[in-house]
Amino acid sequence: EAGVAQSPRYKIIEKRQSVAFWCNPISGHATLYWYQQILGQGPKLLIQFQNNGVVDDSQLPKDRFSAERLKGVDSTLKIQPAKLEDSAVYLCASSLGQTVAKNIQYFGAGTRLSVL
Amino acid sequence: QKEVEQDPGPLSVPEGAIVSLNCTYSNSAFQYFMWYRQYSRKGPELLMYTYSSGNKEDGRFTAQVDKSSKYISLFIRDSQPSDSATYLCAMSKAAGNKLTFGGGTRVLVKP
């Protein structure tokens, strides 16, 4: 079974530029998550989708970050404009659904963003 | 104060030793507790998943949850150099909810 796919793996941009990340979840997984992991810290949830609807975006900096999940499958996360403090690894995760037995989140390898 | 606290390490042990990791948390609403392993430049990989208080064993790994003390532990027996990684505890309030992670403990198992 293929895992969570993310691209690109690495991205270097200058501050105030825009950037987009792409995620393809495990086939059949209804729930998709985007996490931000700053160096030396644990991942922090940015946004959670259930199919193509937003479940939780309370920690998403909406003035600069946006995300969408068209057709309830792939998802993109965008930052515009980027700030230095956005340098982090952006992790995508997916799970089957919201019941106990199906709540295991599987993570992709992440996109490492450096903002100069 | 962070919701989930975890000693960053590094924790260095000789091969074959028992690795003991732990996390404390402040929010009594957490019901589901997980341990993830993260190798350098990789995504987190689930090791253990437990609900409420108690112990769970899977091969060389044992997870313990003490909700009364708001304290969870992970033990790795017969540690191997391949166990060298960062170990993240994570917890959620309900199935399907977001995970709240600790900062991770870096473990180094020396041959």
Description:
The complex is a heterodimer of chains A (116) and B (111). Chain A has strands at 5-7, 10-13, 19-24, 31-37, 44-50, 53-56, 65-68, 75-79, 88-95, 106-107, 111-115. Chain A is an all-beta fold. In chain A, the strands form 2 sheets. In chain A, strands 2, 4, 5, 6, 9, 10 and 11 form a 7-stranded mixed beta sheet that branches. A 4-stranded antiparallel beta sheet of chain A has the order 1-3-8-7, with no helix packed on it. Chain A is globular. The termini of chain A are far apart. The mean pLDDT of chain A is 93. With 111 residues, chain B is mainly β. Chain B has strands at residues 4-6, 11-14, 19-25, 32-38, 45-51, 54-58, 61-66, 71-76, 85-92, 100-101, 105-110. Chain B is globular and about 40 Å long. At the A-B interface, strand 5, strand 9 and strand 10 of A face strand 5, strand 9 and strand 10 of B.
Layout: helices, strands, pairs:
The complex is a heterodimer of chains A (116) and B (111).
Chain A lengths: L4 E3 L2 E4 L5 E6 L6 E7 L6 E7 L2 E4 L8 E4 L6 E5 L8 E8 L10 E2 L3 E5 L1
Parallel strand pairs in A: 2-11
Antiparallel strand pairs in A: 1-3, 3-8, 4-5, 4-9, 5-6, 7-8, 9-10, 9-11
Chain B lengths: L3 E3 L4 E4 L4 E7 L6 E7 L6 E7 L2 E5 L2 E6 L4 E6 L8 E8 L7 E2 L3 E6 L1
Parallel strand pairs in B: 2-11
Antiparallel strand pairs in B: 1-3, 3-8, 4-5, 4-9, 6-7, 7-8, 9-10, 9-11
How would you summarize this macromolecular structure in one to three sentences?
Chain A is an all-beta fold. Chain A has no helices and 11 strands.
In total, the number of strands of chain A is 11
| Distinct helical segment count of chain B | 0
Instruction: Pick out the low-confidence regions of chain B.
Output: none
Number of strands of chain B: 11
- What is the helical fraction of chain A, as a range of percent? under 10%
What general form of chain A does the structure show?
globular
Regarding quaternary structure, what we see is: heterodimer
Low-confidence stretches of chain A: none
* Largest sheet, strands/sense/barrel of chain A: 7 strands, mixed
